[in-house]
Each structure stands twice: as structure tokens, then as C-alpha cells.
Write a structure and sequence with these properties.
The complex is a heterodimer of chains A (429) and B (274). Helix content of chain A is 24%, strand content 33%. With 429 residues, chain A is of the alpha/beta class. The radius of gyration of chain A is 28 Å and the shape is globular. Chain B is mostly helical. The chains are: A alpha/beta (429), B mainly alpha (274).
């Protein structure tokens, strides 16, 4: 612990985009060259006043980045598209070279930017395990040793000697994941976009990978889902336009990250667009708004004041057994609570337009960023409409009980449970 | 636990690269093995393909050059004369076409995993080499059929195989790197193959080339390779034109060394352009 295993100094990667000349075609290159020669011969008098137009534009994917990572750390890298996450990953896994700067890495590195790299459909499962293992940097002896484990993990024992082109896509992905999950390097670099197929199985793999993090392995993960990062990483590096915007404790950064991401889009009121691809629906949600105690729409709430969530919707006809629900999620995508219309109004709805409100009491949600899902369903029969993350809001700290616990996790809601002192025996000194 | 330190920098050191090449030898072995397996699994006739192709070309060449044009064969049965040249030529041309597309075909892998990229075209050449070994069984069969006994020179054959290998690698590396940069380069390759077949002494003996043109003729690296093969296989009946052979040999090694250099130079940007 404490020893630096990855050290990145002034790392810069420049891409040249919009390269017009000497493009990707030999024909164009030849045509360009011969044209240039012809011009030179034909127009000796004509002075070459024309400056060669700037046909290429430089783009800094990474701009002078420095950081270091210690042994045993699990670090998440976040940022919007084009922030340089993938470029950083590619440099660390040596797929591409930096333009300038230096990285030094201590220990055996395995990088996992894709599962099933090198898989060939004509080869059998067994052959592909060996091939993929070799691609990921495992030695033959190591693959042999882990082979049974990999196959058992992927649950494809019966089919291991069949060409993978005969596999279902689920089996294929499971086998590919299983090889990856059994990698055993000192430093693991991975891209969470690996996510394809069976979610349950993916979780199983990710758990196995992160378990490895607990015994002194260093893990560097690029993630697109803030929720995953905070669950798995202690530290987060946030990239913006090729530079490090923030680097620090995961919880803090994720709050900041989501705050920024949502503050831009949310004004406290959202009109719900109808899903045009769906056939005529019997029930429509129209708007969702977050209101403060004076009924003004807002996206920032005071933790010490009450607030309201107001939704408007319309039923095209009487719908028997219908229920509406609203669910609040926190920053890391954990559902905090669900409110159902049926618990106050009972099941079923009459034709017409509605305005409904849910009041959030003061000092109930702990400060942080929240998102809201709404849905309409007939329980155990069908889902009529469902909208995820329709609106988000932030509860601001203005002096709640949680304030003094700065940094450490207080919980997801405030509750006023009694602390009953049942007995007390003074100690006599 | 040994902790080796890895440094990633622009234009990283040459030494590390060659060490990596050694470290990744298992991957190299697996890739070649994959390509061989896939090659013989995908075609219906499988291994027979490696044998049929040169056999049929040999029959056609024997018929056209030996039967119709009645070119001299220096006292060697014409099929053997042709086949001794067909072997290295097939090896060269298939290695060239396979390796030139190899980088582009493995683009997905190149953009996702690190390994010394030299592994890829080299493994393509190895696959063609396996074909070569398989089809040399025809030569053995032909020699038995014609009761043609090779002389002592046959022991020099590994040396000429090595030159054929070097020529294939050199051209393969050049073409694979160029194909990444200029995608339409692959249209040039069938042309080179077609053209090369006629300007190389495959269907005829290079002794029919007029003396004054032979040095020029030897600029084609395959001339040296093919003459060498004939000399080693056919024994006393084939003569080798040494000045020409040395020129061809020189060209082969220039191609190989510049090929490696050019490949190494462009290799670092493969992942960015592929």
C-alpha cells in the first residue's frame, strides 16, 4: 500500500482531424502529387502565392495530464463523451502512443477494453478461450490452469467443443466475459462499456473483478455510469475536455458531477414528450414539476423546507385497476422510496385530466442529487407508461443534522426514531 | 513478486519493442494457429486446397510453356521444372496477399489490445508457409513419379527457403503498412501478383532470358529465389547465374530491412487510423 504503481506526467495526445491531403487513398495521394508536379511545370510564371490551406485541424484529446495511482487503489475515470477517457485508457494500455509526456507503470498490466477480442466464430469454445487468453496477456500455462474455472464460470461446459458460431449470443458473451473475469494481473484497466447481454451475468463478472481489488490489486476503470463508479471506486478522476477537472473522493465528485450534469437540463418543470412510436395510449403524463413551499418551480430545494412534486396527467377513458407510481433515486441510482396513487385514492381511474401533488416533508431527503421516475401500470397485468429520470433536483445543505457528518455517509433519509433510554445505572467512582 | 517497470512515451525505445516481441511469442503462436485452423476449417476441401491450387497451375503452365510453346527445360521433366518454381512463387504470392490485408482485417483487435503489431503480418506469412510445406509433398510425388533423383545440392534448400521467407516478409510488411495508410492499395496487390507471375521465371527456365538482360532481370527478387530453388532441387541440370543471384539477394534484404523500418514507423499510428 502507498507505493505508486501508475505515474502519469504531462501526458498529451494530439489528433489531427479533417485531414484532407494525403487522405486514406493511394489514388488521391498519387493524383495530388502528380497534380502538384504538373502545376509546377505548367505555371512557372504564376507565383505560388497561394498558401497551402490549413487542411488539418489539431485536436487535443488529452491536454497535459498528470496524476498518480497507488497500489491497491480502485480509481474511476468519468467525463462526458470526448473528454479523453478512452484516449487515456488507450495510452495506458499501450494501444496508441502519447504525443508527449510520460507514463510509468509498475507491475503486470491487463487491459480490458472489450470482451472477446480475437474471438473467431469458426473456432471452438475451447480454442477461443486459449486465443482470447493469449490476446489478453495470459500465458498458456495460466490458461490451462484456469480453463475449467473459466468454463464453469461461463456455464458452457456442454458446448465447449463446438464452434462459437453455433453459440447463442448469450453463451458467446458469457464465455468472453469469463475469460476476462479470470484475468489475474497486478493492475487492471477496464472499460465498463463492456456491458452487453445478460445483466445478471455481467454483475457476477464485475463482482469477481472488483473482488480482486480487495486483495491489493490496482484497478482503473472508465465508466459512463456514475452509479457504478461510486459503488466500486474510492477515488474518481473527472476529465473535462482533455484535462483533469477534479480528482478526489468518489462520493464528493459524483455529487458534483451529477449536479452539473443535471443543473443544465432541469429548470424544475418538465413537459413529458409522448412516445410517438407507441400506439395510442389510454393514459398520458403531461408535466412533472418540483415546487418549493411557495409553489415556484425549482431544481434546488432547501433541506429544511418542505417541497412538492406535482404531476399532471390525462386518462383517455376509465381504466380499471390502474395505479400510478413515482419513485425517487439518489445519485448512485439507488431507489429511495416509491409513492403510489392507490395508497390514497385506490386502484382505477376515471376519464379526465388530473393534477396531483406529493409533498416532501422538511428534513426528509438528505442533501444530494435526486432523479425521478414515473409510471402507470395495472399491477400484475401491464405497464401502460413509464418514464425514467424525467426530472432531477438537488437538495441543498442549509444546516441539517447531517451537516456535521460532512463527507461520511449519513444515510439516504432523515428519520426521527426515538432513542429510548430504558435503563441507566450510574457508575460510582 | 518481480515488479518490472514499463514506461510509455512518445517514440518509445527500440529495445523494449524487441523484448516485447519475445514476450508476446505465445500470442504469435496462437494467432498463426488460429489463422491456420480457420483457413482449413472454412474451405470445403480443407487441406486439399493448399495442394490443388499449385497442382492445377503447374499443369496449366506445363501445358502452355512446355507443351505448346515448347520452351527448353534443360533436360528436366517439365512438370518438375515448373513445380520447383511454383512452390516458392505460391508461397511468396499468398504470403503477400495474406499479410497485406492482415492488419486491416485484424483492425478490431489492434484498436483494443496492445501487442507488437509485427506479430500479425508475420503470422500470415507463417500460414502461407504451412501451405508451402503441404504443397511440397506434390514435388516429392512428382520426383518419385519421374524417378528424378535430387543431387547433393538439395541440402542447401533451407537456405533458399529462408530467402523466400525474407522476400515474403519484406514485401508483406511494406504492403500491410501501406494498406493501412492507403486503403485502396489492396487493389494494387492482385495486379502485382498477376504481373509478377509472368516476369518471374515460373513457367520457364531463366536460362532463356538473353544474357545481356539477365542482370536487369535479376532486379526482381523472386528471380534469385526461384533460380536458387531450381538449383537446389534439380541439381546439376540447372545452372545458377551468380551475379544475378547476388543482386536478387541484395534486393531481398533491402526490402526486408526497409520493410521492418517502415512498418515500425507507421505501426504506432495504426490504432489511430484503423
Amino acid at each position: 500500500m502507498g507505493e505508486t504503481v501508475i505515474s502519469v506526467q504531462n501526458l498529451t495526445k494530439k489528433y489531427v482531424i479533417g485531414k484532407q491531403q494525403s487522405g486514406n487513398s493511394f489514388r488521391e495521394m498519387l493524383a495530388g502529387k502528380s497534380k502538384a508536379i504538373a502545376e509546377r511545370i505548367l505555371s512557372t510564371r504564376q507565383q505560388s502565392t497561394e498558401v497551402s490551406e490549413p487542411s488539418s485541424e489539431e485536436f487535443l484529446a488529452l491536454d497535459d495530464i498528470s496524476f498518480s495511482i497507488n497500489r491497491g487503489e480502485t480509481v474511476g475515470i468519468i467525463g462526458s463523451n470526448g473528454a479523453g477517457k478512452s484516449t487515456l485508457l488507450k495510452i495506458l494500455s499501450r494501444i496508441t502512443e502519447p504525443t508527449s509526456g510520460r507514463v510509468s507503470v509498475k507491475g503486470r498490466v491487463a487491459s480490458l477494453l472489450e470482451v472477446g477480442t480475437g474471438f473467431h466464430p469458426e473456432l471452438t469454445g475451447r480454442e477461443n478461450v486459449f486465443l482470447n487468453g493469449a490476446v489478453l496477456g495470459m500465458s498458456e500455462a495460466e490458461i490451462r490452469r484456469k480453463f475449467d474455472e473459466i468454463v464453469a464460470f461461463a456455464e458452457v461446459e456442454k458446448f465447449i467443443n463446438l464452434p462459437v458460431k453455433k453459440y447463442s449470443s448469450g453463451m458467446y458473451v458469457r464465455l468472453a466475459f469469463a475469460v476476462a473475469a479470470n484475468l489475474d494481473p497486478d493492475i487492471l484497466i477496464l472499460d465498463e462499456v463492456l456491458a452487453v447481454g445478460d445483466i445478471k451475468f455481467q454483475k457476477k463478472c464485475m463482482n469477481k473483478i472488483y473482488e480482486a481489488g480487495q486483495d491489493g490489486k490496482t484497478i482503473l476503470v472508465v465508466s459512463h455510469e456514475m452509479g457504478n463508479v461510486t459503488r466500486t471506486c474510492k477515488r474518481v478522476i473527472w476529465l473535462v475536455k482533455g484535462q483533469i477537472h477534479l480528482d478526489g473522493e468518489a462520493g464528493e465528485i459524483s455529487n458534483e458531477y451529477l449536479g452539473v450534469a443535471f443543473r443544465v437540463v432541469s429548470s424544475g418543470e418538465v413537459t413529458i414528450e409522448r412516445k410517438s412510436e407507441l400506439p395510442e395510449q389510454d393514459l398520458y403524463f403531461n408535466t412533472v414539476s418540483i415546487l418549493d413551499e411557495d409553489n415556484n418551480p425549482t431544481s434546488t430545494l432547501d433541506v429544511l423546507r418542505p417541497a412538492k412534486i406535482r404531476i399532471t396527467y390525462e386518462a383517455k377513458k376509465d381504466i380499471e385497476g390502474l395505479d400510478l407510481s413515482l419513485r425517487i433515486f439518489n445519485v448512485v441510482d439507488v431507489p429511495i422510496f416509491t409513492v403510489e396513487r392507490s395508497s390514497s385514492e385506490g386502484l382505477g381511474i376515471k376519464k379526465g385530466s388530473y393534477v396531483s401533488e406529493i409533498e416532501i416533508p422538511p428534513e426528509f431527503l438528505v442533501p444530494g442529487v435526486y432523479t425521478l421516475n414515473i409510471g402507470a401500470h395495472i399491477p400484475n397485468v401491464k405497464i401502460l407508461d413509464n418514464h425514467r429520470s424525467v426530472i432531477s433536483f438537488e437538495v441543498l445543505e442549509t444546516g441539517s443534522k447531517a451537516a456535521i457528518y460532512k463527507g461520511s455517509e449519513y444515510g439516504v433519509v432523515f428519520v426521527n426514531l426515538d432513542w429510548k433510554e430504558l435503563d441507566y445505572t450510574p457508575v460510582l467512582t | 513478486m518481480k515488479t518490472e517497470e514499463l514506461v510509455i512515451e512518445a517514440g518509445r525505445s527500440e529495445r523494449q519493442y524487441w523484448r516485447d516481441l519475445w514476450n508476446y511469442r505465445e500470442l504469435f503462436y496462437y494467432l498463426a494457429w488460429r489463422d491456420i485452423l480457420v483457413r482449413y476449417k472454412q474451405t470445403v476441401v480443407g487441406v486439399a486446397w493448399a495442394i490443388l491450387r499449385p497442382l492445377i497451375s503447374m499443369l496449366v503452365f506445363t501445358f502452355v510453356f512446355g507443351g505448346l510453346a515448347k520452351l527448353p527445360s534443360d533436360g528436366v521433366p517439365y512438370p518438375i521444372l515448373v513445380f520447383a518454381a511454383m512452390l516458392p512463387w505460391q508461397f511468396f504470392s499468398s504470403a503477400m496477399s495474406e499479410s497485406s490485408n492482415s492488419i486491416v482485417n485484424n483492425g478490431a483487435m489492434i484498436s483494443k489490445v496492445y501487442f507488437p503489431r509485427l506479430v500479425i503480418p508475420t503470422s500470415s506469412v507463417i500460414v502461407s508457409f504451412v501451405d508451402f510445406l503441404l504443397s511440397s509433398s506434390i514435388l516429392v510425388a512428382l520426383m518419385i513419379w519421374y524417378r528424378y533423383l535430387p543431387s547433393w545440392q538439395i541440402i542447401t534448400i533451407p537456405f533458399f527457403i529462408f530467402i523466400a521467407f525474407a522476400a515474403s516478409m519484406g514485401v508483406g510488411l511494406w504492403l500491410s503498412a501501406l494498406t493501412v495508410k492507403y486503403r485502396d492499395f489492396r487493389f494494387v496487390i492482385p495486379f502485382i501478383m498477376q504481373f509478377g507471375l509472368y516476369i518471374s521465371p515460373v513457367g520457364f527456365s531463366s536460362s532463356i532470358v538473353p544474357e545481356k538482360w539477365r542482370l536487369l532481370y535479376s532486379l526482381n527478387p523472386m528471380v534469385g529465389v526461384i533460380d536458387g530453388f531450381r538449383w537446389a532441387i534439380l541439381g546439376g541440370n540447372a545452372t545458377i547465374y551468380w551475379p544475378g543471384f547476388l543482386i536478387s539477394l541484395g534486393i531481398v534484404f533491402v526490402l526486408l530491412i526497409t520493410g521492418i523500418a517502415y512498418f515500425r514507423k507507421t505501426e504506432r499510428t495504426f490504432a489511430d487510423v484503423i
